[in-house]
Amino acid sequence: MGVGTHLPDFTEFYRNAADECLRTVMVAAGNQDTAQELVDEAFARAWASWRTVSRHPAPKAWVVRTALNLGISRWRRRRREVPVADPSRVTDLAAAVEPDRLADPRIMAALLRLPARQREVVALRLILDLDTARTAEMLGIAPGTVMAHMGRAMAALRHDLQPELQQENQS
Amino acid sequence: MNDSDLGTAVLESVAEVRSATPVGQIIGRGRTIRARRRIPQAAGAALTVAAGAALAVTTISSGSSGWPSPATASNPGSASNPSGARLTAWTVAKQANGDIHITVNQLKDPAGLQATLRADGLPAIVSFAGPALSTSCQEYPVSRGDLQSVAQFHGTGGITIHPSALPRGAGVFIFDRPGTGSPANPLPAKAPGGTPPLGHLRTARLAPPTLPTGGPLAVGLVYASQQCTG
Description:
The complex is a heterodimer.
Chain A: H1 7-29, H2 32-48, H3 50-53, H4 59-78, H5 93-96, H6 105-112, H7 116-127, H8 132-139, H9 143-170
Helix pairs in contact in A: 1-2, 1-4, 1-7, 2-4, 6-9, 7-9, 8-9
Chain B: H1 3-13, H2 23-43, E1 48-49, E2 54-58, E3 77-80, E4 86-94, E5 100-104, H3 110-119, E6 124-127, H4 144-150, E7 151-154, E8 158-161, E9 170-176, E10 216-223, H5 226-229
Parallel strand pairs in B: 6-9
Antiparallel strand pairs in B: 1-2, 2-10, 3-4, 4-5, 5-8, 7-8, 9-10
């Protein structure tokens, strides 16, 4: 049975999962264009291995994991060529986000200030809606570590966003 | 603000983000990936990785692979096949964008292929007697990814060289790996300048040759010089 016979399933899967995977990778990677490239490539690989991926207990998680791995590989290839900004030193990332992007720039900036691992945990738990156990399995870390990352990430986001969001609600 | 409110805010912050890529484009890319995976199976060939410096596929005896035919190729080499019919040993076709397509059907006339490539402006050395070289040729260290941006294998015996991707000071080394990939000729113990000689390339995985006349075809990079790559 060739891959082609699974095409209807893959198409349906792609239509149902593409947006969610893109948002997840976007939060984890911190950039929409990069996320789009990574997710596209990951879905293409999923299609090429659809017989295997379709039997995966969480195909969306497979795509996201593949996209994140691709991002890591890309960074490793380019790290000697492109200086990587330290997000912790960026004080006004919101201003740097293009105004026509669809994501909320304030929240994206707050997410970018998180360490990469915390961003991944937030992305998988909140956007992809994975539970702690599945998130831990996907990231190769202990469930307790996932909870710790999540707790710290939420605390940092609350610290960053609470004043603005409260002010917004009051107005 | 509790965690639930914060989670909702994060979720809503990206709610309008949608994938802009049509599924057809994804499937097209998937087909390319799948086709690349199947090349070694279809041709009885395999990719050989030599310590981040060489990749290889098995050569073939004849047949069409969708590459430029001998009639349109800029410089075909000829040889006789066992049945007595004339068979193009190799063809070289330079494209408008500068890429060079090489199709090797038989491991014959390496000097002719080498001269043709050099005439097309590609610093190159060709050996169909194993990777043995003189000490004037030294391996140019390159990652597998960078090498693949310079040379790509297609089907069986087809190679595309992208001269524009060639690192400055580097030339292309095309060779076969007869038998199990051992050099056919003894190599110098040590190349001058401390750079490992090419014959010391380690092979991570090597496919058995499909022809008694030749092993997998390989491409590596060498330091370009008058003595080595012309």
